[in-house]
Design brief:
The structure is a single chain. The chain contains one helix and no strands. The protein is an all-alpha fold. It has one domain.
Length: about 50
């Protein structure tokens, strides 16, 4: 009975939300990877 009152998202809304999450996650992954590579190169120079 309670589930009948729930406003479920449409298929289009669900697809848009999933795409937004995938794009955001991809951008975040690239950013973290670039930061990791940058720190990996800079840190040995600072340790000298």
């Amino acid at each position: 009975m309670e589930l009948g009152r729930v406003s479920w998202p449409s298929r289009e809304q669900t697809v848009n939300a999933v795409l937004a999450i995938l794009v955001f996650s991809g951008i975040w992954a690239v950013l973290v990877t670039l930061l990791d590579l940058g720190f990996a190169r800079i840190l040995p120079l600072l340790m000298k």
